[in-house]
Amino acid sequence: MKGAAVGRGPVALVIGALTLASPLLASLLLASPLPATASTGGFGGTITPISPTLAKQMTGVSWRPGCPVPLRDLRVVTATHHGFDGRDHVGRVIVHRDAAPGILGALRRLFADGFPIRQMTPVDVYGGSDFRSIEADNTSAFNCRFVDGTTRYSEHAYGRAIDVNPIENPYVTSRGTTSHTASRAYVGRTPFRPGMAAEGRALVRAFDAIGWGWGGRWGGAKDYQHFSASGR
Q1: Which whole-number Å values give the CA distances from 138 to 71, 83, 152, in the listed order?
Q2: Buried-state track 138-173, b at ≥16 Cβ within 10 A, e below 16
Q3: Rg for the chain, CA atoms, rounded
Q4: What pTM did the predictor assign?
Q5: pLDDT tens digit string along 89-112?
Q6: Which helix (H) or strand (E) holds 81?
């Protein structure tokens, strides 16, 4: 597809202590939801190009011709994270290639700090629906979509934004409301509970360390789940 060249060389995935060197096996894993598999090897993380199989899955869902970033400029960040169940899991986010090292570093910091993430799955699993992804409390990044109510591309469309634990960290309007029932208990930001973003706590510190802005610092409406390279 025009403007959508993807990496076609061998892909080696490292998940915990497990390496998948087969290009076919790696591309199939990248193109399907990862199971909630326990990891026994501590933190593991990799950055890989978009495989042809994943490119096919994304096209017409989270990406389409005319989006501001071609698929060749996106990367899959695969990383171990702590879960709310006390186990370690492997998840994926898709980001711009220039954001990938920082995101991997932030996830490494979060793992070291014991911060739990419910799940990390590309938004394509939810048909590209931001609402459905949030309802699943899914941490995700790239999605070629507009800012709600506008025709301006979201920072997610550039692969330079991530939403973390969106139920525990809701978008809250200036009137103090949220669109997600499960998030109502988190509109009030005290007491602090696992998975939340708060000043001086692990999640905000991890993204401060890579120079990304936090939507919890916005005036008016607050987007507690949202971190971006631009601060928007």
Answers
A1: 22, 12, 23
A2: bbbbbbbbeeeeeeeebbbbbbbbbbbbbbbbbbbe
A3: 17
A4: 0.84
A5: 999 999 999 999 999 999 999 999
A6: strand 74-82
